Automatic annotation (TrEMBL):
Pfam families: ABC_tran. This is Phosphate ABC transporter ATP-binding protein. Residues 1-241 form the ABC transporter domain. The keyword Hydrolase does not apply.
């Protein structure tokens, strides 16, 4: 997936500008930066979730498999099928564990050989099968927060995406549940491209192959803050030898 000169507007306000990124296939990329720097805004551009925000507009180009994701003939629903998303707060449907997984394949018209097999595969892929295999008909809300988040990951992979977007997926979880999600991300990167927004520097250092650091600049006249990409590199280089002083200051905790 390739971003060139991407800017995002909400009405007349430019929230993000001049983003150029090339996400590696089957890698984990972390988007880091202080609050309000546009990293979640950029993430939502990648599967056209910003289309659902009134007044939002994306400039520049985002290409995926050499196709402009914002081209006039591109169906956003098809985009979201290939580029799934896991949100900050676990959001299982008010249905059974089984029906949470089966929902996506059913509504998208997938014709699996066996829905039972697909549900099991998705739950195994999210490292949840052994914990729920005997209670698939129970309501998903009966699960713990960490289990609910893994259920949401299973629901995402059930429709066989290429890319998984994660918007601070561990921010509402305890350290043990967070560690399980991080281990799961590393496992999933063997099959999927993963892009994660995180405020947790240690998490980015632990799981990400590459890291992009964003910051925000205030307009001298209006005071409005616009996000921009400062630096993008292999995670080891970003954390141990950043090229930009702003990156070093943020990672070291001097600001942000």
């Amino acid at each position: 997936m390739l971003l060139r000169d991407v800017a995002v507007y909400y009405g007349g306000f430019r929230a993000v500008k001049d983003v150029n990124l090339d996400f590696g296939r089957r890698e984990i990329t972390a988007l880091i930066g202080p609050s309000g720097c546009g990293k979640s805004t950029v993430l939502r551009c990648l599967n056209r979730m910003n289309d659902l925000v009134r007044g939002a507009r994306v400039a520049g180009s985002i290409t995926y498999h050499d196709q402009d994701l914002y081209g006039p003939k591109v169906d956003p629903i098809v985009v979201r099928r290939s580029i799934g998303m896991v949100f900050q707060k676990p959001n299982p449907f008010p249905k059974s564990i089984y029906d949470n997984i089966a929902y996506g394949p059913r509504v998208t018209g997938m014709k699996p050989g066996s829905m039972d097999e697909l549900v099991e595969q998705a739950l195994r892929g999210a490292a949840l099968w052994d914990e729920v295999k005997d209670k698939l008909k129970q309501n998903a809300y009966s699960l713990s927060g960490g289990q609910q988040q893994r259920l949401c990951i299973a629901r995402c992979i059930a429709v066989n995406p290429d890319v998984i977007l994660m918007d601070e997926p561990c921010s509402a979880l305890d350290p043990i549940a967070t560690a399980r999600i991080e281990d799961l991300m590393i496992e999933l990167a063997d099959r999927y491209t993963i892009i994660i927004v995180t405020h947790n520097m240690q998490q980015a250092a632990r799981v990400a192959d590459r890291t992009a650091f964003f910051t925000a600049e205030a307009d001298a006249t209006t005071g409005e803050r616009t996000g921009l990409l400062v630096e993008y590199d292999r995670t080891g280089a970003m954390f141990h030898n950043p090229r930009d002083r702003r990156t070093e200051d943020y990672i070291s905790g001097r600001f942000g």
